[in-house]
Amino acid sequence: MTDLPQDSLPAASPVSPFDAYQPPAAIEDAAPPGAGSAAKLAGRIKALCIVLIILGGLGLANALMGTVGLLVGQQIQAAFPLGNQPGVPPRIQKLQQDMQRGLQAVQDRFLVANAVFVAAHALLAGSLLAGGIQSLRRRTPGRKILTAACLSAIVFELIRGTVQAFMQVQVMSVTTHFFQEMMEISMNEAADAAEWVAWGARVGIVVGVVIAGGWILAKVVFYGFAVWYLRQPAVCEYLDTDAVTAVIV
User: Which residues in 203-231 are b (16+ Cβ under 10 Å) and which e?
Assistant: First the structure.
């Protein structure tokens, strides 16, 4: 059998629009326009909701510990009183007891404010949890709950931070007076050590206030960003449309 020359083979004809078989279109062509940006938007919203849920959970834990402190804080201090250590001079024991009474007096002056802060913190934390979960599920009230909770959290953090700063100033006054008295009754060879301890206590309180202020500022900035982002038109359209409705449409 004679082989046909290559030039005599029929050339492949281009695909006709009337052919029964059509090659599948590219996957990129099948994707709807804007699908990538919608997926990025959903990812950013999910990340924001998760962070707010975590803050809500931490807030509830903080409120629970604050409630325990308000209920049994005095009993715990009474169970471990200062000034009863064996071998400590009576005057130093009296100074320790005075310092404990002074710190307790500061706590008593801010007792009502702290109770209000604990209750408000629990309410805000619950709102962050509820709003975050509802927003993840794309339920209509979720975004509004989150926005209201973040706005309230900004006011709450600023007020509570201001009150706590005043409280720390009074605590510093009590501890400074205690260490000054300690330096006066200390022996000459121990005076330098007592002074270093006093300065260490002051620095510790100042560093604690600075760290707490930085944490408050970070939360206020984040809550402000969350309010701004949740009010963006694309975010409103995404979250204010229920997930079931979006699937049906």
Answer: eebeeebeeeeeebeebbebbeebbeebe
Q: Establish if 189 belongs to a structural domain.
A: yes
Alpha helices in 80-187 (DSSP H): 90-109, 111-136, 140-185
Domain count, the chain: 1
Q: Which residue has the higher pLDDT, 135 or 16?
A: 135
Q: How far apart are CA 18 and CA 51, in angstroms?
A: 56
Range of the domain at 187: 43-248
Residues 246, 188: Cα–Cα separation, whole Å: 79
Question: What are 8's two structure tokens?
Answer: 């005599």
Report residue 140 as tokens. 């209509």
In a domain, 21, yes or no: no
With respect to residue 173, please indicate whether it lies within any of the assigned structural domains.
Answer: yes
Structure pTM?
A: 0.72
Instruction: Write down the pLDDT at residue 86.
Output: 60
Distance CA 229, CA 150 (A): 11
CA distance 1 to 170: 111
- pLDDT for the residue 189: 47
Residue 4 lies in a domain: no
